Write the C-alpha cells for this entry.
Amino acid sequence: MASIYQINKGVSKPIMFKGLKAQYIAYLAIGLVLLLIAFAILYISRVNLFIILPLILAAGTAIFMITFRLSHRFGEHGLSKFIAKRNLPSCLKFRSRQLFLKLKSK
C-alpha cells in the first residue's frame, strides 16, 4: 500500500498578491477602506460629486503607487528594519564612570 503525500513547496515563502509582499497587502486594504469611508463621509455631507471623485481617485492612485513602491523597495521585512534603524541613537554619552565601576565590582 503506497501512500501518496503532497509536498508543500511554498511553506516558508511570504504571501504575495500581484507583486505586493506580506504586510503591504494589508496596508493597501486599509488604505482602500479608509478611502471608502472618506467618500461616504464627503457624500453624506453633500459635497459636490465633481469634487469628491477626482479627490478620491487621486488619493487611491497615490495609495497604490506608494504601496507598490514600498513593497518593491523594502521587501517583506525591510520597512520594519528601516524604521527600527532610524530610531537607534547615533551615540551614547555617559557623564560618569560609576555605572561601569559598579558592574566590575559585582
User: Anything to note?
Assistant: The CA atoms of residues 85 and 91 lie 13 Å apart. The beta strands are 16-17, 20-21.
